[in-house]
Amino acid sequence: MEREEINERLSLLARRMEELKADIHTAITTSFTHFDSSFDTTTTLSEKVKALSEEMESLSLKINSEVKGQLSISTGDFQGLSRQLGQVTAVMGLLEKLSQAQQLLENIAQATASGKFLSAASSLQVLEEALSNPLCEREEEIKILVSLRTEQKVLKQKLIQQLNDTWKGMVGWSQVENMQKTNTADQLVDTVNKRDTDLELRQCELRLPKSSEVEQQIIQEVVLALESLGQLDRKIQTFGRQFLEYVIFALVLRWQKVEVTEAIVGQVKQVTFKAASLQKQPVHVNVFSLMESVLDMLNENLLHIKVVRHSSTDSAKVEVTLMNLLGEEIGERVLQGIVKECLSSAIPSTSKELEGFHEVVAITKKFQERLVALGFIDASSQTLLDYVQNVNVLFANKKCQGILEQARSLMTSDLHDTVQVHAGASGGELPPLDKSGGPSREKLRKMAAGIDPLLSSSCFRMPSCRISARVKELMDLAYSTLSEACTSSPQCAAQMFYAVRGIFELYCSVVPTYHAHSIANFPQLAALHHNNCMYLAHHLLTLGHQFQSSLPEGVNSTFVDIIPEVRALGATSFLEQMNTQKTIIEQYLQGAAGFVGLEEEKNHSCAAKAVKQALHQLTHLQKIWLDILPTSVYCKAIGILFNSFISDVINHITVLEDISTDAARRLVLLTKQIDDRGTTLFSTSSQETEDDIKRSAIAKAELHRHVSLWSKFMELQLVLSSSLQEISDRWSDGKGPLASEFSPSEIKQLIRALFQNTDRRAAVLAKIK
Amino acid sequence: MEDQEVLTTLKILIIGESGVGKSSLLLRFTDDTFDPEQAATIGVDFKVKTLTVDGNKAKLAIWDTAGQERFRTLTPSYYRGAQGVILVYDVCSKQSFAKLDAWLNELETFATKHDMVKMLVGNKIDKEKREVSKDEGLKFARKHHMLFIEASAKTKEGVQCAFEELVEKEGIDSAEEDDGTSQAR
Question: Exposed site from A286, A347, B93, B114, fewest CB < 10 Å?
Answer without folding.
Answer: B114
